[in-house]
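[Automated response] Your request has been received and processed.

Submitted sequence:
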Amino acid sequence: QLEIAKSEAARASREAAEATGHAQAAREASHQLGDKVSLLTEQLANSRAERDEFKSALEAQMEKAADLERDNTRLVQRLMEQMHLQAQVMNTEIAEHEERRASQTSVALVDASAPSAEAPADAPADAPAEQSD
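Generated structure:
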C-alpha cells in the first residue's frame, strides 16, 4: 500500500505541477491579453479622436464652401446687374449716335438741295458769259 500511496502522491504531485504550469501560462496569457486589450482600447480612443477631428475639419470645410457659394452667387448677381446697366448705356449711346447721323444726313441733304451761292440765282447755269469789246 505504501507503494500505491507513493505512486498516487507522485502522480498528484505531477498533476499539481502541471496544473501550476497551466495556471502560470493562463496568468501570462491573461496579462498578454489584458495588455493587448489596453493597447487596442487606446488605439480605438485615438482613432475616435482622429475621426472627431476629421469630422470637425469636414464640417468647417463644408461651411466654408457654403460661404464661398453664397459669395459666388452674390458676385454673379452683381455682375449680371452691371452687365445689364452697361447694355442699357450702350443702347442709349447707339440710339444717340444714330440720331446724330440721321440729323447730319438730313442737314447735308438740305444743303445739297439749296441753290449755290456762287452762281447767280437769275442766270442759267449753262448760259455763256458775255464778252466785252
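Summary generated for your ticket: Confidence is low (pLDDT under 50) at residues 126-130. The first helix runs from residue 2 to 113.
If you did not submit this request, please reply to this message.
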